[in-house]
Design a protein that fits this description.
Mean pLDDT: 76
Shape: elongated
Helix content: 40-55%
Number of helices: 3
Structural class: alpha+beta
Largest sheet: 2 strands, antiparallel
Distance between the termini: 67 Å
Strand content: 25-35%
Strand order of the largest sheet: 1-2
Length: 89
């Protein structure tokens, strides 16, 4: 291991080429995952509507996000469940 590699390992710093590649990758992921806020609002409405048949949901604490990881779009839905409905409608 040369001195430069040792310093990089100790300080956690990357060379500028690697930093630039990582930044470009993040920009591309962000561009691919970007959807209109209205689109996510509509998805949230529909998810809450379906899940509400089975559980009481706290919509104020419901969060829907979309992002990319490893070339795949990921939709995350975090729902605050107040109660589970035992008698289905």
């Amino acid at each position: 291991m040369n001195l430069r590699a040792l310093l990089k390992a100790l300080t956690g710093k990357q060379d500028s080429k690697e930093v630039a590649k990582e930044r470009l990758r993040l920009v591309l992921v962000h561009d691919r995952a970007s959807v209109a806020p209205e689109f996510l609002d509509k998805i949230k409405e529909e998810i809450v509507c379906v899940i509400s048949k089975y559980m009481e949901i706290d919509e104020a604490q419901t969060v829907i996000n979309m992002h990319h990881a490893e070339g795949t779009a990921i939709l995350e839905a975090n729902l605050a469940i107040k109660n589970i409905r035992r008698n289905l409608r």
